[in-house]
Structures are given as C-alpha cells and as structure tokens.
Amino acid sequence: DDWMVSWLVGWLCSKRTIRSTLREIKMAELKTQLNDGNVAAFLNSVENEKKRADSIAILNLMQEVTGEEPKMWGSSIVGFGSYHYKYESGREGDWFTVGFSPRKQSLTLYIMSGFAQYDLLMGKLGKHKTGKSCLYIKKMEDVDQNILRELIRQSVKHIKKTNEAN
Questions:
Q1: Mean residue pLDDT across the chain
Q2: CA 83 to chain centre
Q3: Distance of CA 74 to CAs 34, 105, 161, Å?
C-alpha cells in the first residue's frame, strides 16, 4: 500500500510539474507577433478622430523614415521593419524596428533603442513622457515633427547597426 501511495504522489507531482512547465512556456511565448492584420482597418477603428488623424500622421512619418511598409504586430501595434534579437539567456525572437499604437491615454511610439543617447533631441522634442522604449505623446501638435523624425531616423539607424553584429 505504501508503494502505491508513494507512486501516486509521485505521479501527481509529475503531472503538476508538467502542467506548470507548460503554463510557463505559454507565458514565455511572445504575444505580440507579426501578423497579417489590416493596418488601415485597425487605424480606421480608432474612435477618436484626432487620435486617428495623428495615428495616420505617425504612420506616414515612420513609413517615410524607414522606407518600410506598416505591418500589424499583435492586435494593436503598427510596426515598421524587423530585426532578430538574441539575449544572453538564449531567448530570441523577431521584433519591429520602430512602431506605434494609438492607446486610450496617449499615442505610444516604440523607440526600440531607448532614449539614453538622445538627450539633446529629447530636450527639443516638446511635451512628452517616456518609458524604457516608449515615447508617450497626447497629440502630434505637442511635439516638433522634425525632431520626432530625426529621433526615429537615429533610432532605426542604431537598431540596424547594433543588430548587424548578432
């Protein structure tokens, strides 16, 4: 009887371990992936007219700077270009070079190189907030379009240069 209880406990533990491992693997999968979503339909679904117009302006600006066609990444990010990354941990994947999303609170621009090396540009940009790789603006009139264009240009150049070596 003891060996059966032991076996059953071991079996249950192994099942639980397998389930939790599968759950961890699922969580580790990147949810924001390149897909064939319709960019125009996504932007046309933005309810706020001003935010929709600003989103189209950002789309045109990023397309001009990158020379890339816009693509949907996940359900709510418009990305331009892509690069392959690989961390020291071994985790790797593909990501957009630059992108944006018309979020409820603000327009979120994804500047993948971060902002540390762009102090001069950031000081001239206008009204904004930043996260690690996110630039938050309320509306396009709040920022200098030429400075924004240069920030995007330099970021794209930096991402391409640093990922050539990988």
A1: 85
A2: 12
A3: 6, 19, 26
Give residue-wise pLDDT tens across range 132-158.
889 999 999 999 999 999 999 999 999
- On whether the CB atoms of residues 98 and 81 are closer than 8 A, the answer is yes
pLDDT: which is higher, 83 or 149: 149
CATH number of 34-164: 3.90.1150.200
Question: Nearest Cα to 58, choosing from 162, 5, 135, 117?
Answer: 135
pLDDT in tens, 27-51: 445 678 899 999 999 999 999 999 9
Provide the residue ranges of all domains of the chain, joining segments of one domain with +: 1-30, 34-164
Interatomic CA distance for residues 166 and 161, integer angstroms: 10
Average pLDDT over residues 51-69: 98
119, two tokens = 């102090």
Which pLDDT score is estimated for 8?
Answer: 56
Distances (CA, A) of 71 to 62, 74, 79, 87, 160: 12, 10, 5, 24, 18
User: What does residue 102 show for φ and ψ, rounded to 5 degrees?
Assistant: -80, 85
Sign of CA dihedral 79, 91, 135, 156: negative
